[in-house]
Design goal:
It comes from Photobacterium damselae. The protein is an alpha/beta fold. The chain has 26 helices and 15 strands.
Length: 688
């Protein structure tokens, strides 16, 4: 506690004495500046500068200002304006006590949600009310109600208008950075639509002058209200405060200020006071709203965990850029970690960005993409910085015994801001499709082999889908069967079918792809005479077959094309785990109920195990090529295939051997009682 206390800069006694002296002369000077009377009615200050100065000083300088104010009031009422009744000294005492209480009140409410409003109410309403009531109570003979109201209005308006100006001046003298930034923002704001703002200010001053020059001028002041409200909205806060003060000076310069009609003057002050209060309420709302927007913007633009930028900040920073690079460091594996560990690593990465590189201000953490995105200049030096940063992070993580390394870095050129979303999306897709086993760390997505796959899957065009078929024959001499195969191309380039389906699954485009492939395959099958083949088999993923919507779509296609269901075999292929076995079984049973045959493809790897053979409603099992190849030379493979054939025979399931390529393999398979043979030896795939 002592160490903390000593570390905080404390005001010296000399500084406190300086504040006392400063307050003394400022308050005394304000009395002299504002000290004039009108006619023989009263000698109370009409333009009550002292109240505004006192409140501003106490708020800024604290107890030192109260001491200076107290001394100044005693001096003024003793040497400059002596009152025989002693009421001035009572007034001084009560005013001083009120100022002391104000400090306690400020400390009490400073953490309250509405502290600004409470302090505003204390100084603008309670403080002038107490000073006015003091005089009317202790000098009832010479201080009637009209004069009391006049003093209250003058003091309250002075506090309302002058205190912010005095406070602003003091903060500028003390070189307050926050205030300077605020003023700079106001100056930049007033430059926008400057002509409209000048016209508006001109109208306000004109109306005020009309109110001064005309004997009956209440309507002129009422006209101020809508003008001031509009001004609050379009004119910066500090400029608005200055404008209200100018309006008040114009009011005080009226030739009627020296009139004996105190009632008339009070009416003018009351109207102005009400308008000023309303304007300050709207100003407070404007400032609060601006702060809330700024806080919200900060929250939106900055990640709370790492203090790195967000996508919104990336958009903002790239608006005025052209021909730049966007790099995305893959963090997908990091986001699988527990939250605490993940945040620790993210904070460490952000710290390294800030301390070891010049990339911190142009780095953005995009949670939706699980990536750290960096905005770079389009040059080789920027790319070398990126690569060296990855090495720095990985070395640091290793030193801290953290089992994690940054993923691959994907980058792409961006011509301008309008292409940002497209580029970010392309980088995200590349990160999802990249080969995790590849040693390549820095990947240029402008010249990437998977771009054709991405473009193809973005909009799957029927014209880019070709259907092939591969016959397989029965060892018993029955009619031929054939499997439908899909072939893809984009921009006259052949696309690997296995990669197309793999990428489609990662990009959630598998269902759309399989629907288009199956529809085109069924259209070709429709053209064949039914007597030419026993059945045609079509491959489907577990995802497709688990989807009731997809199954209904397929059945509907059979009905529309008038294809007999018993001429179709559905092959359940190996593309991943079966997520919903119950839904799969229900859908397969539905297909079987209308006559469609069900085949289990790629038996011997992945999910195609004996368990599936026993639990799924299978008509056909297709032995994977990994078991068939060189089976003539491998006794273990022969035993497995023979075992599959025996179990299948017991369940009345036909067995197909895939990838039969040699006569020796065929001979062994026939000896093992395989029902169907499929492979290049039997028939090479051909397009319809």
């Amino acid at each position: 506690m002592i160490k903390y206390f000593l570390s905080v800069r404390q005001e010296t006694n000399l500084q406190k004495l300086g504040y006392v002296v400063l307050s003394f002369f400022l308050v005394l000077g304000s009395f002299e500046v504002s000290g004039f009377s009108y006619s023989n009615i009263t000698s109370i200050q009409q333009f009550s500068l002292p109240s505004g100065v006192m409140v501003a000083l106490v708020y800024l300088l604290g107890s030192s200002a109260i001491m200076g104010t107290f001394a100044s009031l005693l001096c003024y009422y003793t040497f400059f304006k002596y009152i025989d009744s002693g009421a001035a000294y009572v007034y001084t005492l009560i005013l001083t006590i009120t100022l002391i209480l104000s400090l306690s009140f400020i400390k009490w409410v400073r953490y309250h949600n509405h502290s600004t409003k409470l302090i505003f109410g204390f100084f603008v309403f309670l403080f002038p009310a107490l000073s006015s009531l003091t005089l009317i109570i202790f000098t009832p003979d010479s201080f009637r109600f009209d004069f009391t109201l006049n003093l209250f209005l003058a003091d309250s308006i002075s506090i309302l208008l002058l205190s912010p100006l005095v406070g602003t001046l003091f903060l500028l003298i003390y070189n307050n950075k926050t205030l300077k930034e605020y003023i700079i923002d106001d100056i930049s704001e007033i430059k926008k639509n400057l002509l409209i703002k000048i016209i508006l200010i001109g109208f306000i001053i004109l109306v005020m002058l009309l109110g001064v020059l005309q004997p009956i001028s209440y309507m002129a002041y009422i006209l101020l209200m809508p003008l001031l409200i509009v001004a609050v909205v379009v004119i910066p806060v500090i400029c608005q405060i200055i404008l209200i003060n100018i309006s008040y000076f114009i009011l005080l310069s009226s030739c009627y200020i020296n009139s004996n009609d105190i009632h008339f003057i009070n009416n003018k002050l009351t109207i102005f006071y009400m308008m000023a209060i309303i304007v300050f309420i709207i100003l407070d709302f404007k400032v609060s709203l601006k702060k809330e927007i700024k806080d919200h913007k900060k929250h939106v633009f900055v990640d709370t965990c790492s203090s790195l930028g967000t996508y919104q900040k990336l958009e903002s920073d790239s608006q005025n850029k052209t021909d730049f690079l966007i790099a995305a460091i893959d963090l997908q594996s990091l986001f699988k970690f527990p939250i605490k560990k993940r945040e620790t690593i993210i904070i460490m990465i952000a710290k390294l960005l800030k301390e070891k590189t010049s990339l911190y201000e142009s780095a953005y953490l995009l949670y939706d993409l699980s990536s750290l995105v960096i905005l770079l200049d389009d040059n080789s030096r920027a790319l070398s910085k990126l690569k060296s940063f990855s090495d720095i992070v990985n070395d640091t993580l290793e030193q801290h015994n953290i089992n994690y390394k940054l993923g691959k870095v994907f980058y792409m050129r961006c011509e301008n801001y309008t292409r940002l979303k497209v580029v970010i999306n392309h980088l995200h897709i590349n990160s999802k499709l990249a080969d995790p086993l590849s040693e390549q760390k820095l990947i240029n997505c402008d010249n990437n082999e998977i771009n054709d796959y991405i473009s193809f899957l973005s909009y799957i065009d029927d014209k880019q889908i070709n259907i092939a078929y591969q016959n397989y024959c029965s060892t018993q001499g029955e009619e031929r069967c054939f499997e439908v195969l899909s072939r893809f191309n984009f921009n006259k380039n052949f696309l690997n079918p296995e990669r197309v389906f793999t990428f489609a699954k990662r990009l959630n485009r598998l269902e759309a792809l399989e629907q288009k492939v199956s529809r085109k395959a069924l259209n070709h099958i429709k053209e064949l005479p039914e007597s030419d083949y026993q059945y045609a088999s079509i491959n489907f993923s577990p995802d497709f077959l688990c989807s009731t919507r997809s199954i209904n779509y397929f059945i509907n296609q059979l009905e529309v094309l008038e294809i007999s269901p018993d001429k179709i075999c559905i092959e359940l292929v190996e593309t991943g785990e079966i997520e919903d076995v119950t839904a799969l079984v229900d859908n397969l049973n539905l297909l079987k109920s209308i006559g469609v045959k069900i085949a289990l493809d790629d038996f011997g790897k992945g999910h195609a195990t004996y368990e599936k053979l026993f639990n799924l409603p299978i008509d056909i099992v297709k032995v994977d090529g990994s078991l068939v190849r060189f089976c003539d030379q491998d006794l273990m493979k022969q035993l497995i295939i023979e075992n599959v054939c025996k179990i299948s025979s017991m369940r009345n399931i036909k067995v197909v051997a895939e990838c039969v390529e040699t006569l020796e393999e065929r001979e062994i398979l026939e000896q093992l009682n395989i029902d169907y043979l499929q492979g290049y030896l039997i028939h090479k795939p051909a397009l319809f």
